[in-house]
Amino acid sequence: MTTDISKLTEEVAWQDITEGCKINGSGNSELFHTGDWRVDTPVFIEEKCTQCLLCVPVCPDSSIPVKNYKRLDFDYDHCKGCGICAKACHFGAIEMKKGEK
What we know:
Blueprint: H1 5-11, E1 40-44, H2 55-58, E2 66-67, E3 70-71, H3 84-88, E4 94-98
Antiparallel strand pairs: 1-4, 2-3
């Protein structure tokens, strides 16, 4: 499959493209759904969760939402499946599964 580059360049001017390796504003990672990079998927087992929230600060992708001091299910749009949260959970409330949930 070939892509006609002229069609792509008509839509975006080179002046509008950001330089690589630069962060051009805070919170811009929310715009990109990177969860499809995941090989392993964390599964939240709510009945085992004690709401200690130890998993939340160790998540490098901020993919564990908290509302009213309670953690919710994962933000799978941004979770890359690193498994750090499962290692931080001492209650077995997070299990890593191969592939998608």
